[in-house]
Write a structure and sequence with these properties.
The chain is built from 9 helices and 13 strands. It has about 270 residues and is an alpha/beta fold. The strands form 4 sheets. Strands 3-2-1-6-7-9-12 form a 7-stranded parallel β-sheet, sandwiched between helices. The protein has a two-stranded antiparallel ribbon with strand order 4-5. Strands 8-13 form a two-stranded parallel sheet. Helix 4 runs parallel beside helix 5. About 35% of the residues are buried.
């Protein structure tokens, strides 16, 4: 299969390597010329492509030409710059997808589309998304751009917080004071399981559906990060215990039951 990965970052790069091992022909985009050689050395055909609100920089037509599947793994960047119009960036991409005649799009979204509550609401794929937060609204609108398009099939993967080798929230929480929401449930998922979920959906050509992917254990934030810090010989975070915690629990029962998906990497 000919597969294009728009966004060869921390997850996309590793995904591309796994796809090459399965003998897929893979194209991968980066936004920095410095990363082109790294992508090429992994057997991935590199492209320099940047999405902007006013258009797309790079040879997006060639990138998509002749491909069967597009995986969109582009970070919205809304935390660093809340003024970004991520919807407009993706809307610029849609006509190129339509003209390429590819069969399927997989978009990596986030469980941040769901609202944190004092009741720690349990969310599945049928639950309403947060309409009180701009980041959540933008992500949901991007999902709909893909799901409502009749020119191709689309799958939406809502990942929890990503962890993996050299990547874990404890790396920036260690020793930090005043960490909020100590009793809130955590919703994490390992890189390996993210990649496995994508492979499951590659094998499901007609989908147009949403899938939550979060490890099915949700210990309280304080309990979890204190233990992780202790296990790693790092200073534990200091939590702010005043006030009620806000959080949520994400259910991944759908992907487990309907696709026979099994989580292989513990969050501990």
């Amino acid at each position: 299969m000919k597969i294009a990965i728009l966004g060869c970052g921390w997850l996309g790069m590793e995904l591309g390597k796994r796809l090459r091992k399965e003998n897929h022909e893979v194209r991968g985009s980066v936004t920095s010329m410095d990363k082109m050689s790294e992508v090429r050395s992994a057997g991935i055909v590199p492209y320099s492509i940047k999405l902007f609100e006013k258009g797309i920089q790079g040879d997006i037509r060639s990138f998509l030409s002749g491909t069967n599947l597009l995986i969109v793994d582009v970070p919205p960047g809304l935390r660093k710059n809340p003024e970004i119009d991520f919807v407009k960036k993706i809307r610029n991409l849609i006509p190129y997808i339509e003209k390429s005649y590819l069969q399927k799009v997989i978009f990596t979204s986030s469980t941040s589309v769901y609202e944190d509550t004092n009741e720690y609401t349990v969310y599945d794929e049928t639950s309403d998304t947060n309409q009180n937060d701009d980041t959540s609204i933008q992500l949901r609108n991007v999902e709909l751009l893909f799901l409502n398009n009749k020119s191709f099939n689309a799958s939406i993967l809502r990942f929890g917080g990503l962890i993996g080798e050299k990547r874990h929230p404890i790396n920036h929480l260690s020793g930090k004071d005043g960490v909020k929401n100590p009793d809130a449930p955590i919703n994490l998922v390992h890189q390996e399981d993210c990649i496995s979920a994508i492979f499951k959906l590659i094998d499901k050509p007609k989908d147009n559906s949403i899938w939550n992917v979060v490890y099915p254990e949700h210990p309280p934030k304080k309990e979890y990060y204190t233990k992780i810090a202790l296990d790693r010989g790092m200073p534990a975070p200091e939590f702010e215990d005043s006030g009620n915690s806000k959080g949520k629990k994400i259910s991944s029962e759908k992907i487990k039951s309907k696709l026979k998906f099994e989580f292989s990497k513990s969050i501990w």
